[in-house]
C-alpha cells in the first residue's frame, strides 16, 4: 500500500458525492473501478491507497497512516 497515493475519500475523484466540496461526515459510494463491485459506502474521512484527487483539488495526497485507530 505504501507505493501508491493515500488520501481521504472526500478529496478523491472516485467518491460519488453530488457536492463540489464534500465534508468529513458525508457518505457516498466508492466508484474506483476495482472496488465498485463491492458497493462500498464510505465517509469523507475514510481513505485508501487508490486515491486520485478530485478535479480542482491539489492538496489531497498524504502519507499513509502508520496504524489504524482502535475501534471500541
Could you describe the 3D structure shown?
The chain is mostly beta strands and 72 residues long. Helices cover 0% and strands 14% of the residues. It has strands at residues 7-8, 27-29, 41-43, 47-48. The chain has a two-stranded antiparallel ribbon. It has a two-stranded antiparallel sheet with strand order 2-3. The termini are far apart. The model has no long low-confidence stretch (mean pLDDT 83).
List keywords for this structure.
two-stranded antiparallel sheet; two-stranded antiparallel ribbon; mainly beta; 72 residues; single chain
Helix/sheet category: mainly beta
Report the average pLDDT across residues. Answer: 83
The strand order across the widest sheet is 1-4
The best one-word shape is: globular
Cα distance spanning the termini: 25 Å
Q: Total strand count, please?
A: 4
Biggest beta-sheet profile: 2 strands, antiparallel
Q: Number of helical segments?
A: 0
Residue share in helix: under 10%
Low-pLDDT ranges = none
Q: How would you spell out the order of helices and strands?
A: EEEE
What is the radius of gyration computed over CA atoms, rounded to a whole number of angstroms?
A: 12 Å
DSSP strand content: 5-15%
Layout: helices, strands, pairs:
Blueprint: E1 7-8, E2 27-29, E3 41-43, E4 47-48
Antiparallel strand pairs: 1-4, 2-3
Short description:
The chain has 72 residues and is mainly beta. It contains no helices and four strands.
